[in-house]
Write a structure and sequence with these properties.
Elements lengths: L21 E5 L2 E5 L5 E2 L1 E5 L12 H8 L3 H15 L4 E4 L3 E3 L3 E2 L5 H7 L3 E4 L20 H18 L5 E8 L25 H25 L4 E8 L6 H7 L6 E4 L4 H12 L3 E6 L16 H11 L5 E6 L22 H22 L1
Parallel strand pairs: 4-5, 4-13, 8-9, 9-10, 10-11, 11-12, 12-13
Antiparallel strand pairs: 1-2, 2-3, 6-7
Length: about 375
Amino acid sequence: MGSLPSCTSSSSPTRTSTNFFKVSRKNGHWWLITPEEKPFFSIGINHIDPASLRYPENIHIWREKYQGRTTKWLQESVSKNLKEWGFNTVGWEQEVTVRRWRHSRSFTLEEYQALNMPYCHMLPFTESHQWEQHTRHFDFFSSEWEEWCEYVARSHCAEMSEDPNLIGYFYSDCPTWVHDRPTNQWRGPIFDPERLKTEEGKKELFQLAKRYYQTTHDAIRRYDKNHLILGDRYEANEPIAVEVVEAALPYVDVLSFQDFRDTVNHLQEWYQKTGKPVLLADAAKIKWQTVPGEFTHNNGQWYGEVLSQLIENPGCIGFHLCGAYQRNKARRYGLLDEFENPDVENVKLIQEANFTIRKRMEEMIL
């Protein structure tokens, strides 16, 4: 990585409210700060989809136990279990529907309110995710891009702007700024990495990324001056152009990453480079290459080891486990199976790790 300017501000420049989540440094460590002004380390889980309880073989549970109501399921199953297991955040609720295709819909405000716990929300500004294979890239300098950002902010942020449980907004999941994957080579990366071999190309990427982050930031702030901007969730194991991160720094409150390989070291490196709070927004240790009918387990021992190291990173504000909450036949792993039976061994390890870290946080802030 090249050199980046150190960032010491605790919020983006136009954010003025103090009655919502913010980031601040205490005793040499960055923390999320709750609306009640308490330090908070986000311990989250990702991928929570009620459709996994609506297969022909288990839909009777959905109908009989939850009367076919998502809000009842969120209150009586999801919220109850997450709190019992020691999680304090819903990191990202959207779930895989078909592999290498797309994710499920976002929760509505009413569904988030049924959860009654802190959460993060992803804004669909771009479909530049490294796993997405069907959508062309936006022209960030076009009027259509401005109109779309305005629409997204108007349809999402205006409604959520007063919710104290909302931590902040994510953008794209693993955007393909200067890389691609075999499934989306047809569209290529957002910016040709070959052009980064020249100073002119580096400046061009910086200006492109600045336009992207400034446009998204300004659209959000027209409708919501209260909540954190968590930005793109960069894939830490693919090339990340320093020009992109440098352009993002003034317009995001946190640098967010997905990392399934070297989670602890990568987050430490990015914090040291930028001084910006960092969030491990998606990670897990599981078997990826499963086949239909084969299910795998989330490694609870690995989870506890990583969590205990991340909280010692003075820049890290949280870790969101790549769940899922309940397994489906596409992702093929989850803490509950389709009949709501828990993965007893790993849930116990995860639960123990979560409560250990919460106690550790209390020690660190005294």
